[in-house]
Specification:
By secondary structure, this protein is of the alpha+beta class. It has 7 helices and 7 strands; from the N terminus they run ββαβββαααββααα. The protein folds into 3 domains: 77 residues, Ubiquitin-like (UB roll); 81 residues, no CATH class; 46 residues, no CATH class. A hairpin with a 6-residue loop joins strand 6 and strand 7. It binds FE2/S2 (inorganic) cluster. FE2/S2 (inorganic) cluster (FES) binds next to loops.
Length: 231
C-alpha cells in the first residue's frame, strides 16, 4: 500500500507518496520552483541548485535543493522568500554568464529576475548541469560519457575523447541539453553583459498561453499559468 506524507510548501498542505521529492510535490501541486538539472524518473544530484528552498526546522531554516529533499510529514518548506529569490537570481546569473546564448538558460535567467550579468560572459557550450551524464547512467545504466576534472577544468567527455557506437546511434542527450535548444536571437558577446530582452518578450507572450513555455523542455518550473515567480 502506498504510504502518503503531508508537507507544507508555501502554506499549502500537500499530500504525496512517501519518497516524492519536495520539488516534485511542489510542481505537481502547481507551485513553481525553477529547476534545470532535474530529469523526471532519474535520480537527482542537486547539480544546478536553481531549485533551492528553505527547509524550516524548529524555527530555523536551512537552504537546500528541493529536488534532492524527500517530502516528510510535518515538513515546512518556503520556496519564494526574499532570501531564496536573491540566491536563485545569483545562481541564474552565473549560469547565464557561462552560456549567454542558450535560449533555455536565458529563459531561466529572465524568469529569475536577471536583467544583466555582473561577470564577463564566457560563452561556454556546457553549463555542467549533468543532464546528459545522468540520462546515460540513470536510464540506460551505461557510462559512455562522464564528468572529467574538477573546478574550472571540469568537463563532460567520453572515455579517451572517443564517441562510442552507442553514442552515435542514440543521441538522446542532445534533446535534453539546455545548449541545444535553438540559440538566442540576440547573440551576446563578452563586453555586452546584458540580456537582449528577447526572451523576456517571448516569455510574456508565453504567459498568455496555457502550458506553453517558449518551446523548450525547461519550462516546467516556470509553468506559465501557475503561480508566477515574484522577482
Ligand atoms: S533541479 Fe534541483 S539542483 Fe537542479
Amino acid at each position: 500500500m502506498i504510504q502518503n506524507v503531508t508537507v507544507n510548501i508555501d502554506g499549502a498542505l500537500i499530500s504525496v507518496a512517501k519518497g516524492t521529492s519536495v520539488l516534485d510535490a511542489a510542481l505537481d501541486y502547481g507551485i513553481c520552483i525553477p529547476h534545470l538539472c532535474r530529469i523526471p524518473g532519474v535520480e537527482d544530484i542537486g547539480g544546478c541548485r536553481l531549485c533551492i528552498v528553505e527547509n524550516v526546522v524548529n524555527g530555523r531554516s536551512k537552504i537546500t535543493t528541493s529536488c534532492t529533499l524527500l517530502a516528510q510529514d510535518g515538513m515546512v518548506i518556503l520556496s519564494n522568500t526574499d532570501k531564496i529569490r536573491r540566491l536563485r537570481r545569483n545562481i541564474a546569473e552565473l549560469l547565464v554568464t557561462e552560456a549567454p546564448n542558450s535560449r533555455a538558460i536565458q529563459d531561466i535567467a529572465v524568469r529569475c529576475g536577471v536583467k544583466e550579468a555582473r561577470y564577463p560572459f564566457r560563452n561556454n557550450d556546457c553549463v555542467l548541469c549533468g543532464r546528459c551524464v545522468r540520462l546515460c547512467t540513470g536510464t540506460y545504466g551505461v557510462k559512455p560519457i562522464g564528468f572529467v576534472g574538477r573546478g574550472k577544468n571540469r568537463t563532460v567527455q567520453s572515455p579517451f575523447d572517443l564517441r562510442t557506437k552507442l553514442c552515435n546511434e542514440c543521441g538522446r542527450c542532445i534533446d535534453l541539453c539546455p545548449m541545444t535548444v535553438p540559440a538566442c536571437d540576440g547573440m551576446m558577446k563578452p563586453g555586452e553583459e546584458r540580456l537582449c530582452g528577447n526572451c523576456e518578450a517571448k516569455l510574456s507572450d508565453a504567459d498568455l498561453s496555457l502550458g506553453y513555455c517558449v518551446g523548450c523542455f525547461f519550462g516546467e518550473g516556470f509553468h506559465c499559468q501557475r503561480s508566477p515567480i515574484n522577482v
